[in-house]
TrEMBL record:
Signal keyword on record: yes
Gene3D superfamilies: Bacterial extracellular solute-binding protein, family 7 (3.40.190.170)
SUPFAM superfamilies assigned: Periplasmic binding protein-like II
Keywords: Signal
Record-given protein name: TRAP-type C4-dicarboxylate transport system, substrate-binding protein
Signal peptide limits: 1-25
Source organism of the structure: Vreelandella aquamarina
Molecular functions (GO terms): carbohydrate binding
Amino acid sequence: MSRMKTLTLACAAAALAVSSMSAQARDFRLGLITPAQHLWSTEAEAFAQTLNERSGGEHSVSVFPAQQLGNEAQMVQQLQTGALDMAFLTIAEISNRIPDFGALYAPYLVDDVNHAARLLRSDAAGELLDLMPEGVGFVGVGYGMVGMRQVLSRSPIESADDLHGQRLRITPFEPIRDFYTATGAAPAPMPLLEVYDALANGQVDAIDMDFDSILILKFYEQANNLLISNHMMFPMVGVVSGRVWRELSEADRELIDTAMAEHLENVLSGFEEMDAAQEEEIRALDINIVEADAEFFSEAIAEWESIWAPKAPMLDTLRAEADRLRDE
Ligand code: BEZ
C-alpha cells in the first residue's frame, strides 16, 4: 500500500473515531437543590424528556433534586471537575465567585416578578452569563428565577428597627448577608431544606424567603408574620460544565442549549403566572401582614450600595436596563 493511501486511511479512521465519539450516547447528570415538586425541579425533568426526544433517544438526563448531590458549593466543584454535567443553580452561589453577579441583588432593582423576568431576558443580563466560562468554568445557558424576597418572622416586623438583633435566615451568599447586616439583623446562612427545622426549633427568628417556598415548604406553620417587601429578585441559572461542553459535538451543544433555554424560559414565565395567586393564597392564611418599600430599608440600601457598587461594576448597566424596562 502506498504511503499516501496509508495516511488517507489513517485519517479516515481518526475522523470516524471522532465522529462516533461525538455521537456517543450520554446519560447526563443534572443537580439542583429544590425539592421534587418545585418548578425548577419539574422543568429540569421536562428538559430531560425534551433532550431525550430530540436526540432520538440517544441522550438522557438523570435529574437529582433536593440537594441529593450536595449543596450548591459542592455542586459547583463537581461541575468544575466534570463530575457533574449540568445544574440549575441559584445566582447566590455564582455571586460568591463572580462578584458582578451581585448586581442582580441590588435592593429594589426591579419592582416585581414581571419586571425581574424582563431584566433576566435582556442583553444586559446576558452579558453577565458571558463571564461564567472564565469566572467559574461553566457555560451559562440562561436564567430562571423564583419570586421576590419577603421576610417571614416569628414576631412582627413593623419598622426597620424591629430587624435589629433578629437571627435571620439567609441563603448563603454575600450580597444578601451585607443587606441584612446593614439592617442590624444577625444573618444566619442556611440552605433551603434546613429552614423548616431551624424555624421550628427556634434556631432562627425570621427567614428571607419567596412566596412559593413559603407555601410549598409550609414555613407559615412555624412563623406567622410576613413583611411583604419585594426587596430583591432571586434569579437562577442553568449551566453546563465547561469540561463537559468541550467534549460535545456542535450539534449536541445546540440541542442542549436550545432545549435547556426553553425550559428555563418556562420557569421565568411560570413564576410570572403564579405570583399573584400565591400572594393571594398567602394573604388568605391566618397571618399578620405588613408591607414595606425601599423607604423602609433606606439606610440599609445606602450601606449596601456603598459596598456593592465598587464590587459589581455591572450594576450601572443593569440598573439602566431595569429603569428602561420598568414601564414596558
Ligand atoms: C432559598 O435559598 O431561599 C431558595 C433557593 C432556591 C429556591 C427557592 C429559595
